[in-house]
Design brief:
Blueprint lengths: L7 H9 L12 H5 L8 E5 L5 H8 L3 E6 L2 H14 L4 E4 L12 E7 L5 H10 E12 L21 H5 L4 E8 L7 E7 L4
Parallel strand pairs: 1-2, 1-4, 2-3, 4-5
Antiparallel strand pairs: 5-7, 6-7
Helix pairs in contact: 3-4
The structure holds S-adenosylmethionine.
Length: 194
Amino acid sequence: MTEQTGSKVWWNQKYETSNDYLYGRAPSTFLADNLRYLRKGHTLDIGSGEGRNAVYLASKDYEVLGIDFSDIAMKRAETLAKQTDVRVEFKNQDLNFFLVPLMKHDSIILIDTRPPLTLLKSLSRGLVNGGTLFVEAYTVNQIGRSGPKPDISECYKPNELLRHVTDLHVIYYNERIHDNEPARVQLIAKKSIR
Ligand SMILES: C[S@@+](CC[C@H](N)C(=O)[O-])C[C@H]1O[C@@H](n2cnc3c(N)ncnc32)[C@H](O)[C@@H]1O
């Protein structure tokens, strides 16, 4: 039977195709290059997968909670945290049933993850004043192109993110559509201190 793309079983099956870390152990370069925008404190990694970004942030002294519903990815994430000798809290949770706690997080990161729309629209409420939303993912323009093959459920439409963060101050936004590079969107947005 073919599982619905983007479902928990589908993700577990995807991770099972590899004995090693499917997305690697190294963090997103965009994240590593822009740590200065993330102040130290409570950081929520939504769709934390095998933990590469959460573990990296913890190694830089951030207090990280990673949320994901893939048991296989989570086991690998816990192993990576242990091997790196850092403390990360990983929570096995379906994002469809996750309510972001009000004004709790200094940073919320979404790397290669597209949460349900209601959660996406409510993320700014989860940030403290001065907190940062940090996103990097594929756009639908990558579908059918050479290179990485993300599922449509992981992709953002052109300009879509901008429409969902109107209550934040966008300090960086880039949508890449070059012939020889994957179509990616990157966003850094801050909750203003009023
Ligand atoms: C492409 S992976 C990215 C993982 C990680 N952010 C990274 O950069 O390596 C997307 C992750 O989102 C998780 N995910 C997708 N839909 C989810 C949902 N409804 N609830 C919880 N996790 C979900 C998947 O299990 C998967 O680990």
